[in-house]
């Protein structure tokens, strides 16, 4: 309204969160609460249609924003999220634990697909009883995740950590043999990118933009498929050489495509283009 050029980043349309949360709701009152919490979507759709310079962080998000908000994909620019590869990096002198899985996920958000990782882990324990699972997460007391863990008998098998520093997160990655990203949808997928930057081999679903981030530098399985997750993890644990290759390839992919240097240059170029257009 003031005539100033405005650049807005939409990471992904929250309509995706709404659909997944509704699908995961078992009762009418849960669906009512979900819809009430997402009531701001009306305003998001209204505002987005009035913006002239919209940026998003993946081609998947670009297509989904265009579809759900009624925009043209060509009118949405793409600048990936950046990962600090000087912070998220392999650590010398930290030994990997040969039977340690790690995942970073909001425990009770259906979007993050933690349910399927827990089911996969329970199946893997039948043949690998010493397998560890470290979750950077904090389940809601009495929530669906905690209930599933009790039902699967995993209370004493999973290590939850939360409120940790970035440095501790990097160290946990350095100790992990495999990082798992079980999400049903990601507008970008920072946990996958950060794990890859740390040189950890990644098993990821094909939810949302995750294949764009992981590419051929990790193992990709279908969403909501605990058997596929378990099989991919099992195969990597049996193949240390492939783990090492994927870890190195993942680090290189992040350096080349998703590091802060790369993404900051792209964003700066976009700002300059918007300013140039505004001065014409």
Q: In which order are the strands of the major sheet placed?
A: 6-5-4-7-8-9
Distance linking N and C termini: 18 Å
The H/E string reads EHHHEHEEHEHEHEHEHEHHH
Shape label: globular
Helix content: 40-55%
Give the total of beta strands: 9
Class computed from helices, strands and strand pairing = alpha/beta
Q: What is Rg? A: 20 Å
Residue runs with pLDDT of under 50 for 5 or more positions = none
Whole-number average pLDDT?
92
Roughly what fraction of the amino acids lie in strands?
A: 5-15%
Number of helices: 12
**What kind of sheet is the major sheet?**
6 strands, parallel
Could you outline the blueprint of secondary structure elements for this entry?
Blueprint: E1 8-9, H1 15-24, H2 28-37, H3 41-48, E2 54-56, H4 59-69, E3 76-78, E4 100-104, H5 114-124, E5 132-136, H6 144-152, E6 158-161, H7 166-175, E7 178-181, H8 190-197, E8 202-205, H9 210-214, E9 219-221, H10 226-237, H11 240-257, H12 260-278
Parallel strand pairs: 1-2, 2-3, 4-5, 4-7, 5-6, 7-8, 8-9
Helix pairs in contact: 5-6, 5-10, 8-11
Describe this structure in words.
This protein is of the alpha/beta class and 280 residues long. It is 47% helix and 12% strand. Strand 7, helix 8 and strand 8 (202-205) form a beta-alpha-beta unit. The longest helix has 19 residues, at 260-278.
Question: Could you give a short description of this structure?
Answer:
The chain has 280 residues and is α/β, with parallel strands linked by helices.
Q: Could you name the key traits of this structure?
A:
six-stranded parallel beta sheet, three-stranded parallel beta sheet, 280 residues
């Amino acid at each position: 309204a003031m005539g100033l050029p405005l650049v807005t980043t939409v990471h992904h349309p929250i309509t995706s969160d709404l659909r997944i949360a509704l699908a995961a709701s078992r009762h009418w009152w849960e669906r009512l609460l979900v819809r009430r919490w997402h009531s701001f979507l009306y305003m998001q759709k209204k505002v987005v249609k009035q913006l002239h310079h919209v940026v998003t962080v993946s081609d998947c998000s670009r297509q989904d924003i265009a579809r759900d908000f009624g925009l043209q994909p060509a009118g949405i620019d793409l600048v990936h999220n950046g990962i600090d590869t000087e912070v998220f990096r392999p650590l010398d002198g930290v030994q990997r634990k040969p039977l340690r899985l790690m995942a970073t996920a909001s425990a009770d958000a259906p979007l993050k697909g933690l349910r399927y990782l827990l089911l996969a882990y329970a199946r893997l324990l039948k043949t690998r009883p010493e397998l560890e699972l470290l979750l950077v997460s904090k389940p809601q007391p009495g929530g669906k995740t905690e209930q599933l863990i009790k039902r699967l008998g995993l209370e004493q098998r999973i290590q939850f950590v939360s409120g940790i520093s970035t440095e501790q997160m990097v160290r946990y990655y350095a100790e992990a043999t495999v990082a798992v990203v079980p999400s049903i949808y990601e507008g970008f997928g920072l946990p996958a990118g950060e794990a890859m930057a740390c040189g950890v081999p990644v098993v990821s679903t094909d939810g949302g933009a995750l294949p764009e981030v992981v590419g051929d530098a990790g193992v990709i399985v279908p969403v909501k498929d605990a058997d596929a997750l378990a099989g991919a993890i099992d195969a990597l644990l049996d193949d240390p050489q492939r783990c090492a290759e994927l870890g190195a390839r993942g680090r290189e992919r992040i350096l080349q495509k998703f590091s802060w240097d790369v993404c900051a240059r792209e964003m700066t170029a976009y700002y300059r283009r918007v300013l140039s257009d505004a001065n014409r």
